[in-house]
Amino acid sequence: DEMSLRVNYHFRVAQRVPLETSISFTDLAKACNVEGNLLTRLLRHAMVLHFFHEPKKGYIAHTIDSRRLATEADLFDAVGCLLEDMGVGSQTITKAMEKWPGSDERNHSACCYAYNTDVPFYAYLRQFPERMRPVSSMMRWVGESQAGSQTQITTLYPWQDLGNGTIVDMGGGNGQVIIPIAREYPLLKFIVQDLEGASEQGKRTVAEDMQLRDRIDFMTHDFHQVDMIVLANTNGRVRTLEEILKVLEMADSRFKREAIHTVKGSPFMVVEMIWKP
């Protein structure tokens, strides 16, 4: 499965197949500048996964899934990022677990093991700007592709109670979470913090939107600032509520839980914390 997807991504096969018609395997191989027989076998394997189909012998055309790879840039980048940059972690996770048993350090991840680096994975990627763009696209695609996620985040919490306050989104990427909130609550202002290079597409999107440009600022997040950095590592997709509260306690015991906002049937929640000096 991964093999055929990797070939599709590397040679941009989906983009070379016409959207409305078919193309011969021979012509497609020439367009991709690869050997035809092997490419044909790999693409027929991809067809088992519903990527492409063979409308007549020797010709290839899109299915709904392969067409999405050709037309949705963020999805295409997400696939590539998972395969080329993050996928190596699935191959080295056991090695990392054995080398750093029980460690929660950011530079003890499977990807750090795979790339043989002592710096956290995203800091490592930051050294290669061309690799940060697919990461940024993937984060936006993940945030926007969750069913109903944008609607849910605008209703999970009584944002109107904050009046004209300022919200800081730590690890906010391209602003995919806060932009829907900003559109719904025009009095609020926002600061999106993330690693250098992780928010470039978001900056362009906001700069072109008159409703948002004066209310959303992007800031490179300094991971060396006091204990707040621990909050940047909290990911609600992979942690239970108990784990989130534990991380907050580790960050600073003066964080006190105020409320937890949920919507029935939704996997999302907003944990409201108050910092009491």
UniProtKB/TrEMBL annotation:
Domain O-methyltransferase C-terminal: residue ranges: 153-224
Keyword Protease: no
InterPro entries linked: COMT-like (IPR016461), COMT_C (IPR001077), SAM-dependent_MTases_sf (IPR029063), WH-like_DNA-bd_sf (IPR036388), WH_DNA-bd_sf (IPR036390)
UniProt keyword terms in alphabetical order: Methyltransferase, S-adenosyl-L-methionine, Transferase
PROSITE patterns: SAM_OMT_II
A Pfam family per the record: Methyltransf_2
Any one biological process term the GO annotation gives: methylation
Gene3D superfamilies for the chain: Vaccinia Virus protein VP39 (3.40.50.150), Winged helix-like DNA-binding domain superfamily/Winged helix DNA-binding domain (1.10.10.10)
GO molecular function: O-methyltransferase activity
Protein name (database record): O-methyltransferase C-terminal domain-containing protein
Organism: Hyaloscypha hepaticicola
